[in-house]
Amino acid sequence: MKQIRLLNDTCWDILSQISDPEIPVLSITDLGMIRGVEINNQDEIIIKLTPTYSGCPATDLLKAEILSAFEQQGLSPAQVVIDLSQAWTTDWMTDTGKRKLKAYGIAPPQGDAHQCGTHVALQDGIECPHCHSRHTRLVSEFGSTACKALYKCQSCLEPFDYFKCI
Question: Is residue 108 within 8 Å of 101, Cβ to Cβ?
């Protein structure tokens, strides 16, 4: 049992080293994209991955990176299962991931996602990741990607992306 726990911890350590291709300071575990790691009766490692959205173009890349990382550590056979049983939500992001986002210059999601799966209404006053002022205004509901909104800080005058609650 101790050996299985150690293997499970090793798997999570490996997964925490795999970066999100869009925001490389975040790992797939920071984003909460890994929904589970199991070892089946054939000693195969099963990794459950929920992409940030079902049509994510990086899904195949992430699967390949996960399998390569496990193979490099001599942990095979491994299989990545895409789990779409629940839609990914920003509620699954870790606090560490949110801190990394902020340090990277992207305002992290503030608040919980709606139960219905739609994003929280956007409003002025999102904290600026640069100067921490709340004297900000929404410029556009869509920023560099559909999951981000564009804001401008009225204090430091810097524009910044806000990762919407989804």
Answer: yes
Exposure string for 71-100, b = 16+ CB within 10 A, e = fewer: eeeebeebbbeebeeeebbbebbeeebbeb
> Do 139 and 150 meet the contact criterion of CB atoms below 8 Å apart?
yes
Tokens found for residue 150: 């564009």
C-alpha distances in angstroms, 153 versus 103, 128, 149? 16, 6, 13
Residue 68, Cα to own-chain centre: how many angstroms?
A: 20
Beta bridge partners of 82: 49
DSSP-assigned letters across all residues of 114-138: PTTSPPPPP-S-PPPTTT--S-EEE
Q: Is 39 helix (H, G, I), strand (E, B) or coil?
A: strand
* pLDDT tens readout for residues 62-107: 999 999 999 999 998 999 999 999 999 999 999 999 999 999 999 9
What are the tokens at 161?
């992306």
